[in-house]
Aminotransferase
Amino acid sequence: MDPDSIRTAERVPHGGESDRDVLDFSANTNPRTPDGVADVYAGALEASSRYPDDDYPEFQAAAAAFVGCDPNRVIPTPGGLAAIRLAMETALEPGDEALVPYPSFGEYAREVRLQGATPRFVRYDELCEIGPTVLEASALAVICTPNNPTGDAIDSDALEAFAARCADTDTTLLVDEAFLGFTDRSSAAELELETVVVARSLTKLFGLPGLRAGFAVA
């Protein structure tokens, strides 16, 4: 993270609104939590007196089964945004350029700027059409599917073709799948390309924003 960029970064409102008179539509979460959540919390409380295994193998195994990848590729994070930030910290250097969709999740541009990089905005429904010339000048490309807030999911074949072009130009492709669980689409984690990073969240689909749990697949 670039120290100079931290001083000038502004907060992007995204949940956590304390004013009860404000209806917050910035974070769309499932109002229904899955069966068994209370039992999991009870079990976690019993285990909370001990430090967990640093690798979180049970979480890795469950996450891997959910998205269809090898457990060793799963990196647990405190929320989906933490997975996004981790990917950007790894892929971006000050002065780099990143392809960011719009209209889309406002945190992408902020996180790019926090790394001292520059967001280049591209319409979300045109991003997968970008060719090698632009990709060669971009250290990172961000895809949000389904896109937040429009709800459009990217065609799987188009995403796979774009991921291949990103791999050819050594451009990291960050695929934010925070809302993918509401669809029947398969995860980009199944592509198994070294340049693809998938960010997932337990907030939206499972209705657990207070838990702050997510993961990256890389």
